[in-house]
Amino acid sequence: MDNVQETAGGFGEFALIERLRSKLRASDNPDVVVGIGDDAAIIEAGNGKCWVISCDVQVQGTHFPSEGVSGFSVGHKALAVNVSDVAAMGGTPRFALISLGVHGDVPLAFLDEIYEGMNAKAESWEVVVLGGNVTRTEGPFFIDVFVVGMMEREDILRRSGAKVGDQILVTGHLGDAAAGLYLLNHPELKSKVSDETHTVLTFAQLRPHPRVHEGKVISSLHLATAMMDISDALAGDIRHICSASGVGAVIWEHELPISRSALDLASLAHVDPEEWALYGGEDYQLLLTAPVSAVPVLQEAVRTASGTTLTPIGEILEERKGLLLQKIDSTVPLEARSWDHLK
Ligand SMILES: [Mg+2]
Predict the structure, then answer these.
(1) From ligand 1's centre to the CA of 337, what distance in Å?
(2) Is there a domain that residue 3 lies in?
(3) In which domain, by residue range, is 249 found?
(4) How far apart are CA 168 and CA 340, in angstroms?
(5) Which of 29, 48, 85, 245 has its CA 20 to 30 A from that of 251?
(6) CA 138 to centroid of ligand 1, rounded, Å
């Protein structure tokens, strides 16, 4: 079978990243403060400041459906997911460049809407879209965003600092984005939920709200030990903090912050809402760890600055204990299910 070519599909997203990581030479460069393996890369900018850079592509048919999603939502989300990665380091987003891959049938109105969707929130996320590049493609439409942020070097929050005994915290609610996707896939349920529930859940999926201000407050206090954003799903993303920090963790299932809207839809759809919170993904909340004594200070600071709740959902354990899910009457291994864009 020597002449059979290996393909990316047989690898899975994270194995592929590991393979490509081995081809990079960036670790030799003294200006690289944080290289591959975190939410964003960080580069020395002088005078105690750093650049925070990241890129992320959204492909039609993979990240958003070919029909039924407005250009406005596509633009909003493409910028939001990149801004979220800067927020996850504790940085302030500043500038973005956009690359579009456009096939001949894409309506011009759809492209106009994309820019309207990006501009609508750019100011509140403190980011300016500078320009970019357009290419013709025979494949699906795609939008790739490259974002640049800034931060103080002393405020950087990596994934690798979690300590045994730290609490695990999350901003806002978990599972709304997955519940929103469920609602979009089951249009017959629209008339059975309130308008508010429909808007809250579908907007969580289509127009996520990156936690820029919360991330800055958390990083500037120097109390949290590790942070990342939840893009794939809690059950998968906590694994990244644990492997980067050399620790294990237990998640308290009954403490997961699930919104009234997600609970309402879950009971209507006969779905376990904890499934959405643990394995659904795309919530773009911040996931962080901090010593128990720092938790009330962080909660109060984030609430005062942004009105956002910060909920303890688990504890960091020794590495040999692995990843656990504590249910009401039992503790089981935390399943490794999570979204993989190549599978
Ligand atoms: Mg991320």
Answers:
(1) 17
(2) no
(3) 167-333
(4) 23
(5) 85
(6) 29
